[in-house]
Amino acid sequence: MHGMTRWPARIAAVFIMVGALATGLSAMRVSPMVVEMETTGGNATARVEVQNINKSNLPFETRVTLAEFKNDGTIAETAKDEDFLVFPPQGLLPPNGRQVMRLQWVGGALEESRAYYLSVNQLPVQLEENTEGGAGAQVQVLYNMKALVIVAPPGAQPDVSVVSARAEPFQPPAPPQGGPVPEKVPGIAVTLRNTGKRHAMMSGLTWLIDGKDNKGTAGRLILTPEDLAKGIGTGYIAAGGGERTFRIATNVIFGNEPLTVRFQQP
User: Fold this and answer.
1) Are 242 and 201 in contact, with CB atoms under 8 Å apart?
2) Considering the chain, what is the average pLDDT of its residues?
3) Buried b (16+ CB within 10 A) or exposed e, 50-69
4) Is 70 exceeded by the pLDDT of residue 251?
5) N-to-C CA span, the chain
6) For residue 25, how far is the Cα from the chain centroid?
7) Residues 94 and 45 occupy one common structural domain
8) Helix, strand or coil, per DSSP, at residue 176
9) CA 105 to chain centre
């Protein structure tokens, strides 16, 4: 666009430290973390691998919950083990051991996509008795990891539109190890609605955001899938009218005028 400045994207650097700390504390790895399935055909089955990265045996079990993503950022979960066959549903992994689990959809036909969490939960083990006669308590720290599993009807497509887009200060999260909450930084809030029958994964696209900065200079901020993954994860939006507001840190201080947001394949 003639006369328009392109602003470089530097978003959500605060998330990198959080993710690194979470990975270092886990006793297991689950991959992939996002699984897309369909109700029929070959895509009605999927595989998820669990790896024990601990130095001791890892007993685990699986649970499935229906996940409802709300616009305020919260997620409501409801037990739905009956919608899938998971094999094996539990196991015992030695140090550095791996187990591939098979997921089979058995929930029947769907009108539109549904999102689930496959949770892999570490189970407690019998601790050795204190042979020194002390009365000190023994504590076990148990971990769980979740994979997002989305099931869609064959042939369904998303239909995403922009409800609103504006400048909004972004609040970085508090450090996981404690400490004061960081000061707010420049950011944007983009509300999207998906009226299609299939879910949308918005971090797989490139976002083109046009607007004016606080000095009135017109420009374009381009957010790549790599940028977005740091700030909004998968960018999941439910089918059938699902609506979410994505808040993203930027290095651009936009003015008060509404922003224009478009999407394109990377």
Assistant:
1) no
2) 87
3) bebebeeebebebbbbebeb
4) yes
5) 19
6) 18
7) yes
8) coil
9) 21
